[in-house]
Design goal:
The complex is a heterotrimer of chains A (about 250), B (about 350) and C (about 325).
Chain A (H helix, E strand, L loop, with lengths): L2 E12 L2 E12 L3 E5 L6 H8 L7 E6 L2 E2 L5 H7 L1 E4 L11 H8 L6 H6 L4 H13 L15 H15 L3 E5 L7 H14 L4 E5 L3 H7 L2 E6 L2 E6 L1 H5 L2 H18 L1
Parallel strand pairs in A: 3-8, 3-9, 6-7, 7-8
Antiparallel strand pairs in A: 1-2, 1-4, 4-5, 9-10
Helix pairs in contact in A: 3-6, 5-6
Chain B lengths: L15 H20 L2 H26 L7 H18 L14 H5 L15 H24 L6 H20 L1 H4 L12 E2 L2 E2 L2 H24 L1 H11 L1 H5 L5 H27 L9 H14 L5 H20 L3 H15 L3 H10 L8
Antiparallel strand pairs in B: 1-2
Helix pairs in contact in B: 1-8, 2-8, 2-11, 2-12, 2-13, 3-5, 3-11, 5-11, 12-13, 12-14, 12-15
Chain C lengths: L1 H23 L4 H31 L7 H19 L3 H22 L8 H23 L15 E6 L5 E6 H23 L1 H11 L1 H6 L4 H24 L8 H16 L5 H20 L2 H18 L12
Helix pairs in contact in C: 2-6, 2-9, 2-10, 2-11, 3-4, 3-5, 3-9, 3-10, 4-9, 6-7, 7-9, 10-11, 11-12
The chains are: A alpha/beta (about 250), B mainly alpha (about 350), C mainly alpha (about 325).
Chain lengths: ~250, ~350, ~325
């Protein structure tokens, strides 16, 4: 397989606690990979390790064949990996427009940023992104005033503006209404025309909407991998993931 | 879609109103020496320098979120560079002991000018040193602390430690720094043998402060300003957008130290001495208070606060021994009750409230 | 004015001769040992002054730059009680604990409370407070140095080694040993309170998860106030015990502030024992370097070392790495 992002035997350790115990993951060109798993399975940690937010203890991360393990986050971002965090991680004190402008590809130097002009091309690009996330009318609104779902979109917009090859999305639909979730699904599906996407999700309906291939994590290990049907019929998955959810439901009842 | 509704278009326009108003203020300030005596001119010059110092701190604190108590240190390092120049250029007969060595060095048994001080006899070198020494020092410190996981309060504590350590160091190096008294009784400023009159010095300082203010305004309105504000709000996020946060911090930190250094250098010919008093945390706190009271991130606020408080202090210190108490109360009140500072609060009052657009 | 200049010139000369003398003195292992034994006294002082900060910063994460002034307040309480009622220094300890604790509670109530979750603002406000407290004390007692008497029954030196002439070569004063003892006792008491009592458990639960504790019925604002007051009370006790070592003056807290901070930051904030480790490291290295070079240089080097330490171990030397 011609993979854009490839993770080999990845291990992350926090003070002796193994959060990831050797994960392999391949992400192909313009493919959507969905990661599911119970809380504490290591899903966010996996994305953290890829973008160097958490240090990799062992194993390698390759991007387009290049070793990017433990490179600086900004290098990884510049190479073409964009990340959306679990809680909308956006700039509340800036306007929606400024948030997108900040994320825009290509103005990362100190002196470049001093002299950078807002060219018509840039402006059009930003307007295009704002249209994509449906926030064109909110361009000059400070993000602090937006709803939770809208903030999620702003962050997705930032990732789009970065124009990365690989998009890592950590629970992009958390806290969204079903309508918002569906709209988000459409945004993500439109992303695949140009990007590879790795998404962490909890909402199974949403997973079914977007998923091509699913990876199930459990206690820092890869439990299963396959299509939606394969995963739904996988006994191990039913046991630890769905079964546990059932118990949770029972306990809650 | 009309661009004006996006609030985007105005970014590129030149703010004519602002340029006109500041131009008029600049002209009024330029005419100041024509109407006042030398005492007032000298005082106003010092106040302008305090203003520039406050603006330099505003760049790193108000915009980038790095609270520094070390700006007094950068100011003073520039000051010492200039003080050596002025001291070494005292005519030999103007010197207490009639030789080329400054008095405090003689008292402390030095027989020869140390090699690292000797070059400061020449104006171009001193002029460069007054920017370069604080800037290089800041660059080294900045590279050391910003390229690490350390941030926020710990940086501030480090700046306190730096200020405290350097104060102790300068006091202990009696022979080279003049110890507690510092470098006193320096000559008036003369460049290449030509005396600079007080008015000339004043205009130089006015121009410098004007440039600092205008430059800082331009810088903070550019994309760089946007990036700095983002670093202030959340420095981790922006690194995942491809920005090398540390290099931005080091840049603005070094720039700001350079500005503070020039202010310190220009301060010495007016003050006629420099001493570890300006290195100490108390002076660093003074600068922090100017910015806090004026309003962080407003540029004009800190400059106004520095000039007003500097002025008040000038009189208060003669009337009462307890000026520091007033300063403490001011700081406490501003932090707890008016965190936006005076200009920040006034600006908020006049700004139409943002409607929640849903 | 002229007299001032004369004096400063004289002082300069004095420094000059002192410097000469120091350069002449030669290295001696016994003198170094003596210095290190006396370093234990410094360790005691650091531990005592750092302990209160280990509570307010270590447990509550409040950046309290007025910590030194609480030490100063404790010293003044002792001064007032001793000069007015001729009270023994040891008997003034409970008073200074209660009075500085009460002032601490008041400060928490009026200032700190409004700034939780904003560490930089807290830092600024407590810095302002420190200036205010110094100013107020200066207004009341003037800037003049005051002196406090140590209890007569804890005087003299414990001699560990004598030289050929029979005079003490390695010796430490009983009072310094007393400081170490009191510091260790307070450390033990505090760590017992924190780990083995209901209040201590509540304190830890509040600092770990304020909202959750609130839901569980913990009166978080009361816990905050008591904890902060306790930390300030400890600073007061430190002030009392230290007051007889040097003079008592409004700015005296500043020196102790820096030392206390270095101690806590070096030791790390996860465990109270870290303070002991920090005090030991800083106290002994300060004593050692001060012997080999001189006091100001030792201070500069230790401050530099602390900057390096913060740079590489911002959470201190004895902490656990946490998940994101």
């Amino acid at each position: 397989m011609n993979s854009v992002l490839s993770v080999k035997n990845l291990q992350v350790v926090f003070s002796g606690f193994k959060a990831l115990k050797g994960i392999d993951l391949e992400v192909g060109d313009r493919e959507i990979v969905t990661i599911i798993g119970p809380n504490g399975a290591g899903k966010s940690t996996l994305l953290d390790a890829i973008v160097s937010k958490s240090p990799v203890a062992e194993g390698k991360v390759y991007y387009q064949g290049k070793d990017i393990t433990n490179k600086t986050p900004y290098d990884i971002a510049r190479m073409g990996i964009g990340r959306k965090f679990q809680n909308p991680n956006v700039y509340n004190e800036l306007t929606v427009f400024e948030n997108i402008l900040l994320a825009l590809k290509g103005t990362h130097g100190i002196f470049a940023s001093m002299t950078a002009k807002l060219t018509p091309q840039k402006k059009n690009k930003i307007i295009h992104v704002l249209e994509q996330i449906g926030l064109l009318n909110y361009a000059s609104t400070p993000v602090a005033l937006l709803s939770h779902g809208q903030k999620q979109w702003v962050e997705i917009g930032m990732v789009i503006a970065q124009d990365p090859k690989v998009v890592l999305l950590d629970e992009p639909t958390a806290g969204m209404t079903p309508e918002e979730t569906y709209a988000t699904g459409e945004i993500i599906q439109s992303l695949v025309h140009n990007h590879s996407v790795v998404a962490i999700e909890h909402d199974m309906e949403f997973v079914k909407q977007i998923a091509e291939r699913i990876v199930v994590l459990h206690q820092g290990e890869k439990l299963a991998e396959g299509s939606v049907e394969e995963i739904q019929n996988n006994n191990k998955v039913i046991e630890v993931y769905l079964g546990r959810e059932k118990i949770d439901v029972d306990a809650a009842a | 879609m009309a661009q004006s509704t996006l609030g985007i278009a105005k970014r590129s326009q030149i703010p004519f109103k602002l340029v006109t108003v500041s131009g008029i203020i600049f002209l009024i300030m330029a005419a100041f020496p024509l109407f006042f005596g030398s005492f007032q001119i000298s005082l106003m010059s010092k106040l302008l320098l305090f203003g520039a110092l406050a603006v330099s701190l505003d760049l790193v604190w108000g915009f980038t979120g790095i609270l520094s108590f070390a700006h007094g240190v950068f100011f003073t390092l520039g000051g010492y560079a200039m003080a050596y120049y002025l001291k070494l250029n005292l005519a030999a007969d103007g010197n207490t002991y009639g030789i080329d060595l400054p008095d405090f060095m003689v008292w402390n048994g030095l027989e020869k000018l140390p090699w690292f001080i000797a070059p400061l006899k020449y104006f171009p070198i001193a002029a460069v040193a007054m920017v370069a020494i604080p800037a290089i020092f800041a660059y080294l410190v900045g590279t050391f602390i910003f390229r690490s996981k350390v941030s926020g309060v710990y940086i501030t504590i480090i700046t306190l430690a730096i200020s405290s350590a350097l104060t102790t160091f300068f006091i202990s190096q009696q022979a080279y720094t003049g110890g507690t008294n510092g470098i006193t009784d320096v000559s008036r400023l003369s460049i290449a043998g030509v005396d600079v009159p007080l008015n000339g010095l004043y205009w130089m300082i006015l121009l410098f402060t004007g440039c600092v203010l205008a430059g800082s305004y331009w810088l903070t309105k550019s994309n760089l300003g946007l990036i700095l504000r983002s670093i202030k709000e959340n420095e981790n996020r922006i690194s995942y957008l491809g920005y090398d946060v540390a290099s931005f911090k080091i840049f603005i930190w070094t720039l700001s130290a350079g500005i503070a250094g020039i202010a310190g250098g220009l301060f010495v010919p007016l003050n006629r001495f420099i001493s570890p008093v300006y290195l100490a945390v108390a002076f660093g706190t003074q600068v922090v208070i100017w910015v806090a009271i004026g309003g962080r991130g407003t540029l004009i606020g800190p400059i106004i606060a520095a000039m007003l408080l500097g002025q008040v202090q000038n009189y208060a210190e003669r009337v009462t021994q307890d000026w520091q108490l007033v300063v403490g109360i001011l700081l406490l009140v501003v932090v707890v009750f008016i965190p936006d500072g005076l200009v920040g609060t006034i600006a908020k009052l006049f700004k139409p409230k943002q409607k929640v657009a849903r | 004015m002229k007299a001032d200049q004369e004096r400063s010139k004289k002082r300069k000369n004095m420094f000059y001769y002192l410097a000469q003398e120091e350069a002449a003195s030669s290295f001696s292992s016994i003198a170094l040992a003596n210095q290190l034994v006396n370093g234990i006294g410094i360790v005691g002082i650091l531990l005592l002054t750092g302990l209160g900060l280990a509570i307010t910063f270590g447990v509550m994460r409040i950046i309290n730059l007025a910590h030194g002034e609480f030490i100063m307040l404790g010293a003044y309480v002792t001064f007032v009680l001793q000069s007015n009622f001729n009270l023994d220094l040891l008997l003034t300890i409970p008073f200074s604990f209660l009075i500085t604790g009460a002032i601490g509670a008041l400060v928490e109530l009026t200032i700190i409370r409004r700034l939780y979750g904003r560490p930089l603002e807290t830092l600024l406000a407590t810095w302002g407070l420190s200036i205010v407290l110094q100013g107020v004390i200066k207004l009341i007692f003037t800037a003049q140095l005051k002196y406090v008497k140590a209890p007569p029954y804890i005087s003299g030196n414990l001699t560990l080694l004598t030289d050929e002439q029979g005079s003490p070569a390695i010796a430490i004063s009983y009072y310094r040993l007393f400081i170490v003892a009191i510091a260790l006792a307070l450390l033990a008491l505090t760590s017992y309170l924190l780990n083995n009592t209901d209040l201590g458990r509540q304190v830890r639960s509040v600092t770990q998860n304020r909202d959750m504790s609130k839901c569980l019925g913990v009166n978080t604002s009361l816990v905050d106030m008591i904890t902060f007051a306790y930390g300030c009370g400890l600073a007061g006790v430190a002030g009392t015990v230290i007051s007889s070592l040097k003079s008592v003056s409004p700015p005296m807290g500043q020196d102790y502030l820096v030392d206390a901070w270095m101690t806590v930051v070096t030791g790390g904030v996860d465990k109270l024992v870290g303070v002991l480790a920090g005090a030991f490291l800083i106290g002994q290295s300060n004593a050692g370097i001060a012997y080999l070079l001189n006091d100001p240089v030792a201070r500069v080097i230790v401050l530099g070392a602390v900057i390096v330490l913060i740079r590489y171990f911002p959470e201190g030397l004895f902490t656990v790495q946490k998940r994101s």
